[in-house]
Specification:
alpha+beta, Outer membrane efflux proteins (OEP), four-stranded antiparallel sheet, two-stranded parallel sheet, about 60% helix
């Protein structure tokens, strides 16, 4: 016993002086530009600028219904709840791995009634196997691996990185949820505006039909004019069922994001409302912040970190492992003697394990971990490069969408003038009814395109915030448990 305790300081010294094998992780340089690339074309009215990004960017649309939907989606969405559950799993796994850094202590107790062979090994009861005996015993056992080469430390480091992977997976789900909710809401308002435009044009076409019927009754028009006007009414009216179906689909899509049954949001969303429009100026941060905001970049970095730490685990497996273990306890044949001093027993000492021949298994595992680390490094570069492409593309799209919207607004204005002129000239007999129908069709098409382009501007802005990784910070709260409410 005394010799065992004299070995303890030596073993602890070996532990404290132990090294950590494998490469140390360092965050790769993303080589971000100093500023956003300027547009190489005509600048639209609304432009982003450098500055602190608004975390709750959806509030810039000044639409209380949209803000309420996003708040509820962040609490109820089922995809987000599953991502939260995956995060809890990774934290639990990390806790299990980290437990190897501390001694394991177990307490055991038992009783048995036995009889040994008279011809076999010695009978501990001293009765030569001629009679049964009772055996009472209790043990307190402790064991601890001396992490001399950093195997356990690297495992914990890798587990910490895996937790970060799960955290950023949840942030990525949240980021997509915010964009999907805002995107579906904008599409819904666009469809409702298209419905309103179509119904207005339907009234205009019905007015033209009544006008052609009156002129037919007066003998200054033909049945062809009435037939063409009737066909125009039916053609425009035929657009309504599909638009109404699209409206219902978008309401259901929002219901699904909020974990609500179908049609549950119709009372709130069927009344039309203005389409969310962007502000003239808004801040999008600076390029150097992109790697810290985008969850996919943070996740790729954590995956690279985990792969790097796993190399250290594989290298440590080549070296001997030492486990210090011991137990103290009591053992007696009589219950009355179980607590006596003479019933005590103990054992303590180190256990050494050294791999001698593994048939290339350890070398194969090390090569595998190194190749996985190389793949993770390339993946990180790819994710960062893709992020910069996405930001650049969506900045251009946002600008182009505004220019198209403004040009279509002018087309709508001119087509309205053209329709008023054609209707007046038709009444005066200067043009035939085919001119009225042609101009009215052009007006309906340009108005629908203008609504679609207005929605595209807001959609592009949502896409810009998503590509910049903005918004998840507003709901990035500690995940302590996963409940039905989120």
């Amino acid at each position: 016993m005394k010799q065992a305790f004299t070995l303890l300081p030596l073993l602890l010294g070996m532990l404290l002086g132990g090294c950590t094998l494998g490469p140390d992780f360092s965050v790769p340089d993303t080589k971000a530009p100093a500023s956003w690339a300027p547009l190489q074309q005509t600048a639209a009215p609304s432009q982003p600028e450098e500055g602190a990004m608004q975390q709750r960017w959806w509030e810039s649309f000044d639409d209380p219904v949209l803000s309420e939907l996003i708040e509820q989606a962040s609490q109820r969405n089922l995809d987000l709840q599953m991502a939260s559950a995956r995060l809890l799993q990774s934290r639990a796994a990390r806790q299990s791995i980290a437990a190897e850094q501390t001694p394991a202590v177990d307490l055991g107790a038992g009783y048995s009634r036995a009889r040994n062979s008279a011809e076999g090994l010695n009978d501990p009861s001293g009765m030569g196997g001629k009679s049964a005996f009772s055996l009472w015993q209790g043990d307190l056992t402790a064991s601890w691996e001396l992490d001399l080469w950093g195997r356990v430390r690297r495992q914990v480091e890798a587990a910490d990185a895996v937790v970060q992977v799960a955290e950023n997976d949840r942030r990525g789900v949240l980021l997509s949820l915010l964009a999907d909710t805002a995107g579906n809401y904008i599409q819904l308002r666009a469809v409702q505006h298209t419905l309103a435009v179509t119904r207005d044009n339907l009234e205009v076409s019905r007015h033209s039909l009544r006008l052609s019927q009156m002129r037919l009754n007066d003998g200054v028009a033909t049945a062809l004019d009435v037939a063409q006007a009737s066909a125009q009414v039916a053609s425009i009216e035929a657009r309504l069922p599909l638009l109404e179906d699209r409206q219902a689909q978008l309401i259901n899509a929002l219901s699904l994001l909020l974990a609500e049954p179908p049609r549950s949001l119709q009372a709130r969303l069927l009344p039309s409302a203005p389409m969310p429009a962007p502000q003239q100026r808004f801040a999008i941060g600076v390029p150097s912040e992109l790697a810290q905001r985008r969850p996919d970049i943070r996740q790729a970095e954590a995956q690279l970190h985990a792969a790097t730490a796993s190399i250290g685990v594989a290298k440590a497996d080549f070296y001997p492992s030492i486990r210090l273990s011991g137990n103290v306890g009591l053992q007696s044949l009589q219950l009355a003697d179980f607590g006596s001093w003479d019933a005590r027993r103990f054992a303590i000492g180190p256990q050494l394990s050294l791999p001698i021949f593994e048939g290339g298994r350890l070398t194969g595992v090390l090569k595998l971990r190194e190749a996985q680390q190389q793949e993770a490094a390339v993946h990180y570069q790819q994710v960062v490069l893709r992020a910069w492409h996405e930001v650049d593309d969506v900045l251009r799209l946002y600008n182009a969408s505004q220019l198209r919207r403004d040009l279509l607004a002018e087309a709508v204005r001119q087509n309205r003038i053209a329709l008023e002129t054609a209707q007046r000239q038709y009444v005066e007999g200067a043009v035939d009814f085919l001119n009225v129908l042609s101009v009215q069709g052009a007006l309906l098409a340009s108005e629908e395109q203008w609504v679609e382009s207005s929605a595209a501007v807001s959609q592009a802005l949502v896409g810009l915030y998503k590509s910049l990784g903005g918004g998840w910070q507003a709901f990035d709260l500690p995940v302590a448990a996963v409940t039905a409410g989120g």
